[in-house]
Structure formats: structure tokens, C-alpha cells
Design a protein that fits this description.
alpha/beta, Rossmann fold, UDP-N-acetylmuramoyl-L-alanine:D-glutamate ligase, Protein-Tyrosine Phosphatase, Chain A, cytoplasm, EC 6.3.2.9, peptidoglycan synthesis, cell wall biogenesis/degradation
């Protein structure tokens, strides 16, 4: 009996444990932190052994295979020891993929991947396909492989999940865009992070497809030095293609298999330039899977967007409050500020992952009337924008941030929470941060 050790008792860890047990592995789950009660219950119900707040080496280093949760870095001591012993350390996606015959659509990128994943899922589901949604989102892929019988999966894949693949290949891969993020996990080398994202296509063959943003510099740079066997489907806001997706005269055109899909952009529910890209990527998948044009059109016009991503919360005294808590890096905030068309009070800050704020300068200059810094250490933000905006305020709670924002606005303004940073200094995660923002706005 092969021994499967799982590091991390969260969603992906527990899902992998269930699948491993079902497939006849001797399974052990080890978490250096605490395991949530609901997960403990699932493990107990499935007769799976676990430990928390420690890694017992003699129970781990005897593994035949190890599934490491995406949050655990390669430089963690236990992972280093496993690698020294040449024990394979893989991701949930790599472990689960061989156990399903389903076609997978893998979506990665620094920004836009959740929206693109949700929109692609919405398109496929609306067309009546038997489709699951997993990866970085919702219920774990491994658990769904154990318990469901889907024909397709739409998977949101982070660079950390892709670091742990060996043989996995999606039939259709999407790279939404690449900008510096999580560099602390990649020796502060941008090229390492880019290479990590492109692992999504490393096992693809001529029968597979890679959909990508043809306007993105980092992606273009990768193509100069690397090749993929997959058929390429580019999308762009500025270029046009014989095969690919583009915007021309306020229409989105997607041309695949010599069959053109055209839709006026004003009827697409998602707003903003970056969302046009997300729509082009998702529509390309729908076209490859030969979904009817009427279904695509209907789905694009009915899609509601993703919570915590440019989510309109409330309008109070003609001031629009917008929750973009999911913007955990500068590039995401760039999209948010770019889509603002009224004077904006911007709430920003948190745990900085090596941010370079210079690319936001022109947008801040043009659109932002006041900045509220919501973080434990705001020095970098103050240094960057102190001379550009007239009003700069530091707060250390979401309630204070929202109350202060209300004082600084006049009719016709907007308040935008788009932190450009991780949330762990004051919040559990970006969802917690977004929920607190919405609650504070509702309390005004």
C-alpha cells in the first residue's frame, strides 16, 4: 500500500485525503498550524489520521508521495527534507488529475483569473455541459474527482499549484496576464514567477490550446525564448487576428475554427477594459467547445461578476462605494483605478509583497482626490503618493477607513477599496477585508 502524506489540512489537503483514501492509499495529514473543526470532522468520518501544530518527521519522511498545499513554501524545513530524500512533492491538481477522464480548462494569471474562471464556468454551465469548478476556488478538485462525475472542469490555478505539477496538462489553458506578484516565493526573481505560470502549457500537445493576452509584455517576452506545442489563441484590445479574439469598433470578435462570433461590447455585463479581456478569454473557450452563439451572447450579458472584485456595494448620498478587496497586487489596483470615471477616495494598504507603486502615478494623479492608508506599515504608500494627492490619512480599522471616506466625499464621487496588498496584517484574508468593508458601508 502506497503511503500518501498530505501537508496542510485545508480545502485542498482534506480533498486530497478523501480521494487518496478512496484510491487505496495509506493516508496521513499533517498541518503545522491548526486544522479547522469542520475539516477535522471530515477526516474523522473518513477514518483518516491527522496531526496539527507539528510535523512528526518519522510519520512524514516515510511517504511514497507527498501532496503539499499551495500555501506552504518550498523552503519550509520539512519540504526541504522530503526533497533531499527525493520523495515526490506534488500539488493537489497533479495528484487528482489522473483519476478523472474529464476535460480540464486551466486558468492562470496574476489578475483576472477568478473572473475568467467564473465566467467560463457560467458559459459552460449555461450551455448544459456537465461541468465542475475547482482549483483555487470553491470545493477542492480532488474531492470532486472522488465524489462527482463531471465531463469538464474549469480550474483556477495559482503559480503555487503549477509549481507542483509534473504530468498534468489542461486541454485548454488560459494565461490572463502576468505582473509581479508573490515574488517573495520566487527569490524576488520575476522571471522565476513567469516561468511558474507557463508550467500550465509545458505538457500540452498539438491537440491542446493556449489562450493568452497578446498585449502583455511578460507573456510576449516568454514567447521570444520558449515554445509550446499547443495551438495558440491570442486576445487583444489593440491588435486584430485571423485566429483569436479582439475588440474592433466597439465590438468583440472571436474568430476560431473559421467561425466568427461578434457581440457589441455595450451588451457585455462586465465593465472595464480588463473585463473585456476576461470575456474574450472565456468566449474563446466556449467557441472551442462549440457552444451555440445565442448561449454565449446570453451568458455574457447575464454574468454578475465576482464578489470582492470591483463589486458595487451601495450608493449613499450619490457616492458609489466599490469593494475591490481582491486586488492584492499593484496590477489589479491599476485595473480598478483605470475603470473609475468619477473623483475617487482610494482605500489602500496591507502587507506589501515588494510593490512598485510608480505605475499607478498617472492614474492617481488623474482620478484620486484622497488616499486612506489601511495597514500596519504605510510608509511606502505615503512616500509614493504624498506629493500627488492633497489628503493622505492613516487608519487602522475598516470602520475608521469607511467613516473617513464618507467625510472626504461629495456628491458624484466614489469610494474604492483596492488595497494593492495582501490583507494579513489586519484581516484573516481578502474576503474578510471585503466583508468588513461592505458591513461598514451598510452601517453608514
Amino acid at each position: 500500500m502506497q503511503r500518501l502524506v498530505i501537508l496542510g489540512g485545508g480545502e485542498s489537503g482534506v480533498g486530497t485525503a478523501i480521494l487518496g483514501k478512496q484510491k487505496g492509499y495509506d493516508v496521513f495529514v499533517s498541518d503545522y498550524g491548526k486544522i479547522k473543526d469542520n475539516y477535522k470532522e471530515v477526516l474523522a468520518n473518513n477514518g483518516i489520521q491527522w496531526e496539527e501544530e507539528t510535523h512528526t518527521e518519522n510519520k512524514i519522511l516515510n511517504a511514497d508521495i507527498v501532496m503539499k498545499s499551495p500555501g506552504i513554501p518550498d523552503k519550509a524545513p520539512i519540504v526541504k527534507k522530503l526533497l533531499e530524500k527525493k520523495i515526490p512533492v506534488i500539488s493537489e491538481i497533479e495528484f487528482a488529475a489522473p483519476f478523472t477522464k474529464a476535460i480540464t480548462i486551466g486558468i492562470t494569471g496574476s489578475n483576472g483569473k477568478t473572473t475568467t474562471t467564473m465566467l467560463t464556468y457560467h458559459l459552460l454551465k449555461s450551455a448544459g455541459l456537465n461541468v465542475g469548478l475547482a482549483g483555487n476556488i470553491g470545493k477542492s478538485f480532488a474531492q470532486q474527482v472522488a465524489e462527482e462525475q463531471y465531463d469538464y472542469y474549469v480550474l483556477e490555478l495559482s503559480s503555487f499549484q503549477l509549481d507542483g505539477i509534473v504530468n498534468y496538462k489542461p486541454h485548454i489553458a488560459i494565461v490572463t496576464n502576468i505582473s509581479p506578484d508573490h515574488l517573495d516565493r520566487y527569490e524576488y526573481k520575476y522571471e522565476n514567477y513567469i516561468a511558474s505560470k507557463f508550467r500550465i502549457t509545458m505538457n500540452q500537445t498539438q491537440g491542446d490550446f493556449l489562450i493568452y493576452d497578446a498585449d502583455d509584455e511578460a507573456i510576449a517576452e516568454w514567447f521570444k525564448n520558449n515554445k509550446t506545442k499547443a495551438q495558440l489563441i491570442p486576445f487583444s484590445l489593440t491588435k486584430t487576428f485571423e485566429k483569436g479574439a479582439f475588440i474592433k469598433e466597439k465590438k468583440m470578435e472571436v474568430n476560431i475554427n473559421d467561425d466568427e462570433f461578434i457581440m457589441e461590447t455595450e451588451y457585455i455585463a462586465l465593465e472595464g477594459k480588463h473585463n473585456m479581456k476576461n470575456a474574450m478569454a472565456a468566449t474563446s473557450v466556449a467557441k472551442l467547445l462549440q457552444i451555440r452563439k445565442a448561449t454565449i451572447r446570453e451568458s455574457l450579458s447575464s454574468f454578475q461578476g465576482v464578489e470582492h472584485r470591483l463589486e458595487k456595494v451601495l450608493k449613499i448620498q450619490n457616492v458609489q462605494y466599490i469593494n475591490d478587496s481582491k486586488a492584492t497586487n499593484v496590477n489589479a489596483t491599476y485595473f480598478a483605478l483605470d475603470s473609475m470615471n468619477t473623483p475617487t477616495v482610494w482605500i489602500v494598504g496591507g502587507v506589501d509583497k515588494g510593490n512598485d507603486y510608480s505605475e499607478l502615478m498617472s492614474l492617481v494623479n488623474e482620478k484620486v482626490k484622497a488616499i486612506i492608508c489601511l495597514g500596519v506599515d504605510n510608509k511606502k504608500i505615503i512616500d509614493a503618493f504624498g506629493n500627488i494627492v492633497d489628503v493622505m490619512i492613516e487608519v487602522d480599522s475598516m470602520n475608521d477607513a469607511v467613516k473617513m471616506a464618507q467625510r472626504l466625499t461629495e456628491k458624484g464621487d466614489a469610494v474604492l477599496l483596492s488595497p494593492a496588498c495582501a490583507s494579513f496584517d489586519l484581516f484573516e484574508n481578502y474576503e474578510d477585508r471585503g466583508k468588513q468593508f461592505k458591513q461598514a458601508v451598510q452601517n453608514l
